[in-house]
């Protein structure tokens, strides 16, 4: 919901060792004491697989949530060397999962693979952070909205509970590049996507839409005016507690 809880999600990608919990601890310290919060926003960190079990136990009773960054496209157990199923993640207490990140799509994660991953994650009762985004060429050829519509239509289904699906709009050209869409451009895309999702899946409520791509404590200012945004998926800047806390502070300043 546009005026509901905002999400600040840190995606660590291939970063983090056991002592990196200190970053999350500091953010949790700020988040728990922030008197202005009062349910206004939610903080989630997505560390790599290696840290999930320890961190999930550590933050079980804390306000912060821990998310996985991916899972395999088949469930339960099986002969799939090096892979982890959503069932296995659920069993260690994980309730959030990022799926469809462009870095995984670039390695061959197709819409049909994602259709399976999302369906299994739904079955396991996960909250899903589903990433979509256009590349530079799509943008140049004015294909952005078509690409986004296709990424949504090929994977999501009307029978899903969209209160448990958060869409993260992450233009590929913006990830890690320091480039971001103009507030006007972003606002238009977010409004378009919310409208499209609401109508396509016949929702009686607004779906949740996040922005991701080069979000940091400075750039966050320009997104404040976009009331339709439900939060941010933060990569690079989530590796520092100071940067991450400053993003939240500056957003509410
Ligand atoms: P970035 O990454 O903030 O480093 O651009 C965002 C993401 O890939 O989720």
**Percentage of residues assigned to helices:** 25-40%
Numbering strands along the chain, what is their spatial order in the largest sheet? 1-2-3-4-5-6-7-8
The gross shape turns out to be: globular
Tally of strands = 8
What fraction of the residues are assigned to beta strands by DSSP?
15-25%
What value does the average pLDDT take? 96
Could you state the order of secondary-structure elements as H and E?
EHEHEHEHHEHHEHEHEH
Give the N-terminus to C-terminus distance in angstroms. 21 Å
Number of helices: 10
What class do helices, strands and sheet pairing give?
A: alpha/beta
The major beta sheet can be summarized as: 8 strands, parallel, barrel
Heterogens: 2-phosphoglycolic acid
Structural notes for this entry:
The chain has ten helices and eight strands. The chain has helices at residues 21-33, 49-58, 86-91, 102-105, 111-123, 136-140, 144-153, 183-200, 220-223, 241-252, and strands at residues 6-11, 41-46, 65-68, 96-99, 127-132, 165-169, 208-212, 231-234. The model has no long low-confidence stretch (mean pLDDT 96). The longest helix has 18 residues, at 183-200. Strands 1-2-3-4-5-6-7-8 form an eight-stranded parallel barrel, surrounded by five helices. Helix 9 (220-223) links the parallel strand 7 and strand 8 (231-234). Helices cover 38% and strands 16% of the residues. With 253 residues, it is α/β, with parallel strands linked by helices. It starts with 5 loop residues before the first strand and ends with a helix. Bound molecules: 2-phosphoglycolic acid. 2-phosphoglycolic acid (PGA) binds at residues 11, 170, 175-176, 212-215, 233-237. 2-phosphoglycolic acid (PGA) binds next to strand 8.
